[in-house]
Structure formats: C-alpha cells, structure tokens
Amino acid sequence: MSTAELMDFDEAIEKFEPVLGFEVHVELGTATKMFSAAPNGFGDEPNTNVSPVCLGLPGSLPVVNEQAVRYSISLGLALGCSIAESSSFARKNYFYPDLAKNYQISQYDEPIAFEGEVEVELSDGSIRRIPIERAHMEEDAGKLTHVGTSGRIQGADHSLVDYNRAGVPLVEIVTHPIFGAGALAPEIAKAYVATIRDIVISLGISEARMERGNLRCDANVSLRPWGQEKLGTRTETKNVNSMRSVERAVRYEIRRQAAILEAGGTITQETRHWHEDTGTTSAGRPKSDADDYRYFPEPDLLPVVPSAELIDELRAALPEPPAARRRRLKTEWGFTDLEFQDVQNGGLVSEVAATIAAGASPAAARKWWTGEITRLANARGAEPTSLVAPESVAELTALVDEGTLTDKLARQVLEGVIDGEGTPAEVVDTRGLAVVSDDGALIAAIDDALAAQPDVLQKIKDGKVQAAGAIIGAVMKAMRGQADAARVRELILERATE
Amino acid sequence: MGEITALTAAELSERLATGEISSVEATRAHLDRISAVEGDVHAFLHVSDHALDVAADIDARRSSGEELGPIAGVPLAIKDVLVTTDMPSTSGSRILEGYMSPFDATTVERSRAAGLVPLGKTNMDEFAMGSSTEHSAFGPTHNPWDLERIPGGSGGGSAAAVAAFEAPLALGSDTGGSIRQPAHVTGTVGVKPTYGAVSRYGAIALASSLDQVGPVARTVLDAGLLQDAVQGHDPRDSTSLTDAWPSMADAARAGARGEGVKGLKIGVISDLTGAGIQEGVSTRFREALDTLEANGAEIVEVSAPHFEYAVAAYYLILPAEASSNLARFDSVRFGLRVTPESGGTVEQVMAASREAGFGPEVKRRIILGTYALSAGYYDAYYGSAQKVRTLIQRDFANAFSHVDVLASPSAPTTAFRFGEKLDDPMAMYLNDVTTIPANLAGVPGISVPVGLAPEDGLPVGIQFMAPAREDARLYQVGASLEALLESEWGHTLMSQAPQLGGKH
Amino acid sequence: MSEISEEQVAHLASLARIALTDDEITNLASELDQIVNSIAKVQEVATDDVPATSHPIPLRNVYRPDVVGDTLTQEQALQNAPDDDGQRFVVSAILGEEQ
C-alpha cells in the first residue's frame, strides 16, 4: 500500500477509536528446553542442540522443565496475575515443517497465570494500566531458512530446517483488548513492550533480546467509529521484533485501516507481516475455518499444581515493580526528570542499569546509551539494545576514565565493537587506537611541527600561549588523533621555556 | 522343536545359571527354530544378525564370575513398536521402513541390562491398530495353532513367536488388548501392567493415555520374570509411576504353590459374559472359575453398567490421540518421502507421503480422530468419551470394593480366519470389548490359557483384572489357576500345540 | 442418516495431511458414518455432572531438573532424514505460512 492510500494519522484518530491487543512471546533463559534435556541454545551449529524429543522421534516423550515452570509463575506474578491452582498442557495440532511433532505443546483452557495488570509509563510521565488476560507456557518451533532467489518464503526453491530452537520454553502473554488509547496508541504499544521487556529482564528469566527473537510481539489492531460499541475487525501483525517497530506497525495499521474504512471498504481478519525495511505491513494468511487446531489435553504430561509455598517463595523473590524501580533508579543515579525520561523513552533503563552494574558511572552510562549508541542505531535502522552489550559499554567508559581512550577514539572503538571486531580492548589493540602516551614520540612530533612553523615558537616564547594551538593541531594530525591534547600542550610549553 | 526351545524362561534360566546350557546354545537353538518355522508363522519382521555375539558376551561375563540377573542369557523377541538402536523399528508401517532409532526404548535398555538376548523384532498391526496383524504393512502373522487363522493383534507377532517356540519371552504393548487378546488366541500368557508401571519411553505411541508395554510368555512365572526386568519408574516418561514394585515372579511362585486362592473373591463381570461370547469360550471360562471355586475361591457376579460404552469411548479416544501422535510421520526428519510427479510444495509432499506410507486402517483412524477433535464436535465426541472414562473408572472402583479381582473371557471368540472381519471395521473393533475397559481405567489385566474350545480346538484365555498397582495379585491368581489346570490336564496347554516346521 | 459427507472427509484429510484418493474418500465417508453412528452412544451417559478423565492414573507436578542431558549429535539427528544438506533437513518449497 502506498502512503497515498493511508489516512493521515491525526485524521484517522479523529474519525476512529483504535483498539489494541498484544501477544508477546518470551523465550525463557533456562539451561534446557521446555520438555527435553537438550541445551537451550539457538544459534549454534544447526541441529546440535536437539534430543529425540526436539525432533519428535518415534517413541520420544516430553518431560516438563521445573525451572521453566518456576520462571512462568514468577512472570505471572510480576504481571499481577492469579496463578492457577491447577493448570494443564494441551496439544495444538497443525502441520508445519518447523514443528517437529506437527503439534505444539501449549496451554489452552487452563493457563498457568490469568487476569493481571501491567502499569505502563508514557513519555509525559502518565501511567496506563494494561489488562492482562493470561500468560501460558508453550514450546518454540524450529527455524526455517528459505533457499532460492529471494530468500523469502515466496518463490523459494526449497527450505532448510534447524530444530535447535524447537522446544525452547516460551511464555505467551496475552492482553485483553486495550481501549481508550486514542492518539497515544502507538506510544502505548511501544511502552507496553518495553515494560514487559523490563519486567522479564529484572526477573532474570530471559535475555529478552528482541533482535534475536527472545521477545516477540504480535500486535492486534482494530478500529471502530468513536461512540460505536461493536468492535471492528482486527488484524494481527506478526514479526514485530523491536520496540520501535511495534510503535510504527501500530501507527501504520491505524492509518491503513482508517483509509479502507473511510473509503467504505471492510477490513479482512488476517495475519499481516511487518516489513522493517519499508515500514509497512502486508497481508498474510486469512483467518478461516481451516484454523482448526483440534486442541486436546496433552496425555503425555500431567497437570501443574503449584503449592502455596512455592507461589509464596516466588512472590517473595520478585523484584520491585517497574514503576517503583524507575523511581528508585532515578534517585540513585541522580538524573533529572528530563535525563531519566530520555533513558526511559529509549527503552534503555535495563541497559543503563546493567552498564552501571558493570562499573560505569551513571552519567557516562546515560550519555553513551542515549547519545552515540542511539545515534548509531538510528543510522542503522536498528534498536540500540541490539547493537552492543552493557558490559562492553562499561568497559569503554573505563578505558576513557583511565586515559587509554579519548572520547573521540572511544566512539571509533564503539563502532568496532558494534561491527563485531571484538571487545573494546580487542578493538583498541587491533585498530591501534590507544592514546599515544609515549612522550618521546610526542616530543619528536612537536619538534617536527615547530621546525615547520619557526615563527610560532617565538610567539609562544613571547607569551602568546594561544599560538600553541596551531602546533597542537599539527601534532594531533601527525598522531592521527591518538594523542592526549592536554599533554601535547604541556610538552609544547615546556619546549618553549627551555 | 528341540529340547532347549521347549524350556520355559524360568527353566532355561536355571540351566544357564548352572552352566548346563550356554546363552549361545540357547540363542542358536531359537535362531534355528526361527529358520525352521518362520516360513509358516512370519512372527518376525527382522531377525538380529548379532544375537549370538550378545549371547557370547553374556556367557563370557558369567564365566568371569560376574553376578548376572535372574534371566540373563535368555532370548527375547521384541515387538516392533519398541525402538531399538541395533535393529530397524517400523511399528509395522511402510512409512517407517528401515528406520533406525538413535536410542533404545527404556524397556529394551532394561532388557539388555538384565542380560536378555534380543532375537529380533516381531510383527504387528500397523502402528498397533488392529486385532489380527492383518493390518501389518509387511504381511500377516499366522497362528501356530492353525496357520489359516489370525494370531490376534496388534501383537500377533510376539504372541505367535512365543507360541511357536521361536522365543521363550517377548515384549508387547497393549492399548486396547494388544497383549491379552493375542495371548488368548495363541494359548500364551500376556499381561497389561498398570498404566505407568512400565515405561512408555521408546514405545512408538498409538494412544498415549492407553498404551502400556508388557510381557508375553508361555507361563505366568515367565511373564513375571520379564515384568520384573522392565518395570519401575523412568524419569523420561512423565506418566511413569514412582512406586516400588514387588517381584511379579515371586507373586507367581506363591500362586503356583496355591497361596491366595482360598478366600479369594472373584467378580465375574456379567456385562462381559453374555451375548456375543462364543460358546466354547464361555464353557472353558466357566470351567476355570469352577476350578478356582473348588479350591476355595468365592465367585460373585458383579455389574459394570458402563462397560457397554467402553468400545465407543475407546474408538473416540484412541483415534483422537493417534491422529495427533502420528502427525510426526511427515517425511521431514525420518520416514518415507514421496514426491508427487509434478514436484510439489512441502504440504503436497507430506500429504503424498502419508497417503503412500499409511495403510487403510491407519488412515481410517486418523480421519476418525481428526473428526472427533475438530471444532464443533469435540464436546459431543472426545469430551463425552472422556466422561465415559470416568464412569468406567467408577464401575471398577465400585466392583473392587466388593471383590479382589475381576474375571472375564479374554476375548469373545477364538482365533478367526484371515479376512473374516477385514471388511467390517466395527466387527473387528468389537473384538476388543473385553480388554478395552482395563486400558480406559489404567488397571492391570492378565490373560491366562484355560484350554481349547470344544467346537474348534483353539485356545481360550481367561482375563483377570485387579485394581491399579495390584499387578502382583494378577500374577498370583494367574499362576494358581495355571497350576491347578495343568494338574487337572496332566500337561501344559502349549504341549498340545501343533508341531511346525516338520521337526520336533 | 448420513452424518459424514465426502466433502467433510476431504476436509478432514486436508487437516490430517493425507492425499486420499477419490475412492478412499467415498469409502471412508460411508465407513465413518457407520462407525460414528455406533460410537455416538457415549453421549447417552456423558452428562454435565460427570467430570472428564484425561489420564488413567492421576499424577501431578512431574518435573525434570533444568540440567542438560540426552542430546543427539548432528549426525544422529540427520541419520534418518529423507534429505539433508549435512547440517539441516531439506524440504521442498513451502506454500503456507507460519501459524
């Protein structure tokens, strides 16, 4: 759809009320899979982190990972949900080559957690309450790679299947319909996903790296004329794998649907795919009667009946709620309202916290994340959190503090780290970017510069100290920027007074 | 049939222990017997090419003074539903032809650990769907008592192998009677343990909530020895019970000594002894009860009013679970792949592979199960069947509050002829009427031979059922009856079986 | 009364991914009709007050510790594959989409 077929966003909101809903899948960071003892390690050599269960081999049977159950209960509690006295697994039957058994073990009518609420803070500091319908446990599918000219599913010649991800534990968090978002719908969408991510990270149950698919969001959007009670037909946009994209995708769907409705058309109930590159969604599979998943109770697994003691134990171990955590961190870090909102709106609270935990000062951590890293991320169309690990940022600030790097050099090192050249220290080594601290080399460069501009030395000797600037510039150029300008200045002045 | 193959597993074990017979000799004798009679019987889908090596290893370990288990060195036949690393595992299906499992079923692993010597993999109805082995993709097994008749199913291969003296012991699996009904029609002993007593890990699933692996043998004691070797908790099967099990062999020995019959209350399920039971089956069943009564047991009639719904519930639950369990046979990771002539998408390749790889009974049940689970029908069919399951469990609970064990004929008729019920699925399904209730309720059941039907001279079995976890009670009662009948007859039933292969 | 039509069988076959022939569909429609008629009797006693039983022996909270165990090598994983590229399973082009 070209932009001409989209309604202006403000106009769309004037005419229609958007109703949102989200399904967020969180991959749990357990050591092993949900139902088998194979390592939970997607991204390794294909088909090496698999057991007979992951491949659905004849005779294999699932056994529930206790840690995954504990993580799921903790997440349910953190979402303000009730934990089911008894919850059970069910089989969702459909054929797809990435689904080894051709059924997914999930939860259907008895999810582990239900009816909760998440507080989401918007950029103006206001709070929205997002109603949670349920959170249930299930298993991830394998990974398909489409081989052919396009690299996409359409037009592929054949596909390759890697089952390393098959059986990775997932919790799916489903919201109730979210009403009253109005023009704030895109921002609420982004803030909701950012909040879920913060919760998951603070619980320590997932790495929550959206670019790696640890946290995935399906966004449901429908529109109805203001004042109408009946809900409009909704679409479900999949593959929305960054917070920025969630915001953009919701905005796009509102504008697209509004244009269709305004023109007298009808919305097709369907899944839609988000395209990061074009910032658009495209039609996928229509929902139909063919979606008959034939759910039934999983006979190979028994009900999960958590004891009150277990729930109490996990409740007591919960980290503070996100809002309280934000208030505490703001005070601890000594940020102004504006500074903290900068971090908050960038979805960077967890990153800044982790960077500080790794040894950086709050000011430096904030500066790097909201500054250079965000700038590079925008330039690359990526999410800041996907570019670099907090530990690397902390290491970078340490190198600046100890004088190995100047700020300018540090920015070059950061690019090297982002480009996968190694840790900051390794990039410093391989690129030879450390500040030259050898006075001998500096003095030689100073002598060369002074020899090239003999009048300058006399000016300095005459007390025109600012003339040293020309020499400093020449020396920095000769040293390709890898010198501490203050030290160069000191050495020039020493030379002039000899 | 030679002297060694005529021995029971218990007798053979004694001679192995004393060194009178080596495991190599025992294994060779059974391999020779297999060569001699397989042309007639076709009990095996695969015969091991290294059974003698395994036997030699057992012999070497024994002679080095290693303490071996009670049945170490005894040959074993394994139903092809159990996966094995050293032999193909097909579950009787073309779709798995040549499939090699990277792991052993827990029961196979435990059999190996007990020193049993796997001889081969036995024939079965495809994916254990059937009561005659006529649904095997690799041709039927013939009943050693009458080669024109079915050996029962699905585990006809295991029962026939034991009945034809090709193996003293065999492993089977029982989803709705697949161990007990073949035992009934071949004059052998078959036990479906309590659901969860024996691990299902590595048993190619038919209906997960009904499947149970168990022993097949010519005597109750032998069956007990095999159950002792394979039973017990397995952390790889979530439904495996953590109970500490008593020795079933000890229970059988106690029964053979006559312990436990006096005062035993046996409930005869009136709902399973009436219409539809062949006269000779009824006759032998009643005689067996008379024998027990004469030795001090008390026989009472009990009613299980919901058993009449058991077959219906079973043929909803089984196809539903099977339709899901068999979805994995899609030609992606293993199994037959058929590409349509015009090429095709992965969906078309999957559909063509499943069309070509599954036999008619498997397709029938997959479609039936898909129907039972589909939107709009779930509550009426699958949901209702699960409620019937509750009612049948209540019937059992009620009956067991009055009696120690329940008794019924193991199956309504003796072995029928090939093709007799092949075109009438419902008639075939009704053959399981006596065995299905135990699977629905998870309780253990045993079939013990009680003689030959007067009208056709074919074997008849009696089924005993006990409350869940009371498997030992069945072994004791079964061995008691076995000993009483053999002393009445003056011989074992199996000694009356026709000689096969032209050799004795 | 015919409860199961050929169209229905064809739909069920597509859900179950079996490329049934027309003859098979015709036969199955009539066979299933008979079978369903005789097993539908479960509804007679399955009243609202009867709870469903999904597991024959009731157990609960059966777990496995989160410790790495049985894992296949890549070679084992691929050993029965109809087609593979040495690392991954190969399947022909996919028409549909992920669910």
Can you walk through the features of this model?
- The complex is a heterotrimer of chains A (498), B (504) and C (99).
- Chain A is 40% helix and 20% strand.
- With 498 residues, chain A is an alpha+beta fold.
- Chain A has three domains: 3-310, no CATH class; 320-431, no CATH class; 439-496, Arc Repressor Mutant, subunit A.
- Chain A has a nine-stranded mixed sheet.
- The longest helix of chain A has 20 residues, at 243-262.
- Chain B contains 17 helices and eleven strands.
- Chain B has one domain (3-307, 391-496): Amidase signature (AS) domain (Amidase signature (AS) enzymes).
- Chain B has 504 residues and is an alpha/beta fold.
- Chain B has an eleven-stranded mixed sheet with strand order 1-3-2-4-6-5-10-11-9-7-8, with helices on both faces.
- Chain C is mainly alpha-helical.
- Chain C has a domain at 6-45: Histone, subunit A.
- Chain C is flat, with a radius of gyration of 22 Å.
- The longest helix of chain C is centred in the N-terminal third of the chain and has 18 residues, at 22-39.
- Classes of the chains: A alpha+beta (498), B alpha/beta (504), C mainly alpha (99).
- Strand 2 of chain A pairs parallel with strand 1 of chain C, so a sheet runs across the interface.
What's a quick, concise take on this entry?
The complex is a heterotrimer of chains A (498), B (504) and C (99). Chain B has helices at 3-6, 9-18, 23-41, 51-63, 106-113, 156-163, 180-186, 220-230, 248-256, 279-294, 310-325, 346-357, 360-373, 379-400, 425-430, 436-441, 471-489, and strands at residues 44-47, 75-79, 117-122, 169-174, 189-192, 212-217, 265-269, 298-302, 405-409, 445-452, 459-465. By secondary structure, chain B is α/β, with parallel strands linked by helices.
List key phrases describing it.
heterotrimer; A: 498 residues; alpha+beta; Arc Repressor Mutant, subunit A; three-stranded antiparallel sheet; 17 helices; 15 strands; B: 504 residues; Amidase signature (AS) enzymes; eleven-stranded mixed sheet
